[in-house]
Every structure is written in structure tokens, then in C-alpha cells.
């Protein structure tokens, strides 16, 4: 044992010496200009030194609030929260190419996730290539082409998400081909991963017993965007299909119907998923017994969202929002019977004040009431219905860096 410890200590000293030597070389190298710095960057070589960057933008998106949260009418917590901080860099070069990078500083993940080899805090890391007036190719980590206004609008504008949108895998590595038929119709054909990490991490309680992980964890999506009435009416519909595990698939139908003409902004979203395994975990989470849970099979979720914004004046905006959600098991399995397990609805009221014209700076007062009703099928497992309330006074700002 002592001999082993001696060898181990000797190795540590050797490793330490190698590290110090490497750092010394690095400092010495930094004191002299690098030969490669004299070479032209790739972008300048592509454009014969005539073009560097067509346009570039960098911003920091910030949302902070003081929240008073209640559970079943009793104060749960009152504290300051930083809901979102996101760094975004985007731009274009060589006329036909664009790039978009965005990282959330609120999300904690391992540095490299096994499947896409990228931290989950990185939401977007993609490059777009405008092939011609009609076709565009996008590669890298990107937004999955799910539809629904709440899903595709900038998250900095959403005070409280539906459970459906809060649990879908909305940013994934993949490839998208966009076809613009004309100014009113556009189609997207996309293939992405359907998860970021290991298959067992995708499900609340891991893969069910006897279910094997898939070797093709992909999701294919077809999307149509339509614009009518001088682009005031916007329709966005999507179908998605992929494999969650071997012989266990998932199907999504999502759509958003928007009317955007000042002073009104209104939308109705419909979202549906049919899953061979419960990837969202919302139903599996209510069937826990004696502290032991399992990932359920054969579930579906349905959500509808209604929102109406009214710009009262140049400095004031009001909106009311309502969400209804339902979670079901569509096929009995063992002691889990088919039927509805949870019904959720929430109502939101928000007043927004814009101190500056033509600015992203705003202050808001947001009220939330959310009721989670569990049916008899769920309560027999010991789960209980509950309701939540929240009062938030917050600040939102998109800080333009350049």
C-alpha cells in the first residue's frame, strides 16, 4: 500500500511540473505576436479582403422581479428573483450567411451533455445559409419548429409558461431547410435531436423496465407559416414525429393563431402530444407510491392558450391570459388505468409600463392564479390537488451592447 501511495505521489509531482512548464511556455508565447495573426481571417479570404461583417448585434436580456408566492392561499415565499439573463450574439456576413448564438445564465447543466456535446445553457448556436430567394439552410443548435405564439415568442416576454411549453425539448441540435413560397407562405422541414442528454435523463424516473434506449433519438418536424390581411393574421402549424425509445414514439401537433394589429395582439394556441413514454413527467409525477415512482407509458397531453394584449397608450400595455391543460393515459398498463389524470388551468393579468418610447425597457405588475386538479385516478396514489398564486413586480430590459 505504501509503495502504491509513493508511486501515486510521484505521479502527482510529475503532473504538477508538466503543468507549470506548460504555463511557462504559454506566458512566453503570449509575450510575442503569433505568426497566424498576420494571416487574413477566413471571412476576408472568402471576400478577397473587401468584406468583413455585413451586420452584427449583441444584447443582454434581463428580467428581474420581487415575487410573493402562495400555495393554497398560504404565503409560501416572498423574495427577489432574477428570472432570466441571456446573452445573445447574432449577425451576418458575405451577404448570404448569418449566425445566431444565445446562452442562458439561469440554467445549470454539466459542461458537455453526452448527446450533442454542448452545455444545456446554450440555447442557440447556429449558422444560416441563404441559398437563394426561396431556400435557406440552417445548421447547429436551434429552436425546434414547434408552433404556438407562447412557444416561439422571445421568452423574455413570457411571465409564466404553460406546463406543456415548460417541458418540451425546444432547443436541439439539427438541420432545418426553409422554403419561402412567397411573402405569405413559408415551409420548414427540420430534423433535430429529441433530447440533449442521456435517455435516462430525459424521463423523470428513467426508462421503464424492459424498454430499450433508441439508437436514433431524432425528431422530424414539418411547419407551415401563413400571413394574411397585410400580415395582421398569422397562422403557424406544425407536425412532429420521433422516437423516444425502441418501439416508443412521440407525435406532436402544435399550432398558433395570431392577430397582431395595433392596438391589439391576440392569440389562441393549441398543443397536443401523444407519447409512447411520458417524456414530460407530469402524469408520472402524480403516480408515486411510498416515494417510488416510475415512468408511465401511453400518455397524451393537450393544452390551449388564450391571450389578449391591448396597448392602452404609448406607455401602457395590458394583457389577460388563460391556459387550460389536460393529461391522460390512453391505454391501460398494469395498475395504471386509462383516463384523465390531471386538469390544469391558470389565469394571468398583467400591466406593463414603458418609461421610454421605442425601448425594450419595461416595468410590470403580474398576477397569476393556477389550479392543478387531480382526478380520482391520480388521488388514489396519494397525490392531492392544489392551487398557486403569485404577485410579481418586475423589470425587463434588453440591453444593446452593440
Provide a descriptive summary of the structure in words.
With 402 residues, this protein is mainly beta. The chain has one domain (58-400): Beta Barrel (Porin). It contains six helices and 16 strands. The protein has helices at 2-30, 42-46, 149-152, 163-167, 199-202, 376-379; strands spanning 55-71, 74-93, 97-104, 122-130, 135-143, 171-182, 185-193, 218-228, 233-245, 248-261, 264-277, 297-313, 316-329, 339-353, 362-374, 386-400. Strands 1-2-3-4-5-6-7-8-9-10-11-12-13-14-15-16 form a 16-stranded antiparallel β-barrel. It is globular. It starts with a helix and ends with a strand.
Topology of this protein?
Elements lengths: L1 H29 L11 H5 L8 E17 L2 E20 L3 E8 L17 E9 L4 E9 L5 H4 L10 H5 L3 E12 L2 E9 L5 H4 L15 E11 L4 E13 L2 E14 L2 E14 L19 E17 L2 E14 L9 E15 L8 E13 L1 H4 L6 E15 L2
How many distinct beta strands? Answer: 16
Corresponding CATH architecture: Beta Barrel
Q: Which class in CATH terms?
A: Mainly Beta
Task: From the 3D structure, determine the CATH topology.
Answer: Porin
Q: Into which percent range does the helicity of residues fall?
A: 10-25%
**CATH superfamily membership:** Porin
Overall mean confidence score, pLDDT: 86
Q: Number of helix segments? A: 6
In N-to-C order, the SSE pattern is: HHEEEEEHHEEHEEEEEEEEHE
Number of domains: 1
- Give the neighbour order of strands across the main sheet: 1-2-3-4-5-6-7-8-9-10-11-12-13-14-15-16
User: Tell me about the biggest sheet?
Assistant: 16 strands, antiparallel, barrel
Q: Beta-strand level of the residues, as a percent range?
A: over 45%
> What class would the helix/strand composition place it in?
mainly beta
Give the overall form: globular
Low-confidence stretches: 1-38
Protein name: OprO/OprP family phosphate-selective porin
Pfam families: Porin_O_P
Organism: Bacteroides mediterraneensis
InterPro entries: Porin_O/P (IPR010870)
Amino acid at each position: 500500500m505504501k509503495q502504491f501511495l509513493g508511486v501515486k505521489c510521484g505521479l502527482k509531482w510529475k503532473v504538477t511540473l508538466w503543468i507549470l512548464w506548460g504555463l511557462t511556455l504559454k506566458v512566453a508565447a503570449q509575450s510575442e505576436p503569433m505568426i497566424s495573426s498576420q494571416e487574413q481571417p477566413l471571412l476576408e479570404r472568402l471576400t478577397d479582403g473587401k468584406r468583413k461583417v455585413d451586420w452584427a448585434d449583441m444584447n443582454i436580456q434581463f428580467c428581474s422581479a420581487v415575487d410573493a408566492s402562495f400555495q393554497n392561499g398560504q404565503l409560501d415565499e416572498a423574495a427577489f428573483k432574477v428570472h432570466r439573463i441571456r446573452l445573445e450574439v447574432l449577425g451576418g456576413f458575405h451577404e448570404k450567411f448569418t449566425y445566431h448564438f444565445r446562452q442562458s445564465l439561469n440554467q445549470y447543466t454539466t459542461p458537455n451533455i453526452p448527446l450533442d456535446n454542448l452545455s444545456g445553457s446554450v440555447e442557440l448556436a447556429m449558422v444560416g445559409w441563404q441559398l437563394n430567394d426561396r431556400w435557406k439552410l440552417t445548421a447547429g443548435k436551434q429552436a425546434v419548429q414547434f408552433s404556438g405564439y407562447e412557444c416561439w415568442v422571445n421568452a423574455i416576454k413570457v411571465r409564466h409558461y404553460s406546463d406543456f411549453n415548460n417541458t418540451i425539448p425546444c432547443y436541439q441540435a439539427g438541420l432545418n431547410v426553409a422554403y419561402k413560397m412567397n411573402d405569405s407562405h413559408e415551409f420548414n422541414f427540420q430534423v433535430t435531436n429529441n433530447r440533449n442528454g442521456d435517455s435516462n435523463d430525459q424521463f423523470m424516473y428513467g426508462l421503464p423496465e424492459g424498454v430499450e434506449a433508441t439508437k436514433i433519438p431524432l425528431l422530424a418536424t414539418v411547419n407551415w407559416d401563413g400571413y394574411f390581411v397585410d400580415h395582421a393574421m398569422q397562422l403557424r402549424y406544425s407536425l412532429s414525429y420521433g422516437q423516444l425509445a425502441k418501439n416508443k414514439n412521440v407525435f406532436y401537433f402544435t399550432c398558433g393563431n395570431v392577430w397582431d394589429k395595433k392596438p391589439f395582439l391576440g392569440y389562441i394556441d393549441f398543443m397536443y402530444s401523444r407519447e409512447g413514454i411520458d417524456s414530460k413527467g407530469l402524469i408520472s409525477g402524480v403516480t408515486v407510491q411510498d416515494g417510488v415512482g416510475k415512468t408511465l407509458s401511453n400518455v397524451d397531453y393537450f393544452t390551449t392558450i388564450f391571450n389578449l394584449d391591448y396597448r392602452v397608450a404609448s406607455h401602457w400595455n395590458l394583457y389577460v391570459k388563460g391556459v387550460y391543460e389536460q393529461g391522460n393515459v390512453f391505454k391501460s398498463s398494469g395498475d395504471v388505468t386509462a383516463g384523465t389524470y390531471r386538469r390544469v388551468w391558470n389565469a394571468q393579468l398583467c400591466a406593463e409600463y414603458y418609461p421610454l418610447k421605442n425601448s425594450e425597457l419595461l416595468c410590470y405588475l403580474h398576477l397569476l392564479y393556477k389550479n392543478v386538479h387531480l382526478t380520482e385516478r391520480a388521488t388514489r396514489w396519494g397525490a392531492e390537488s392544489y392551487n398557486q398564486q403569485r404577485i410579481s413586480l418586475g423589470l425587463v430590459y434588453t440591453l444593446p451592447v452593440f
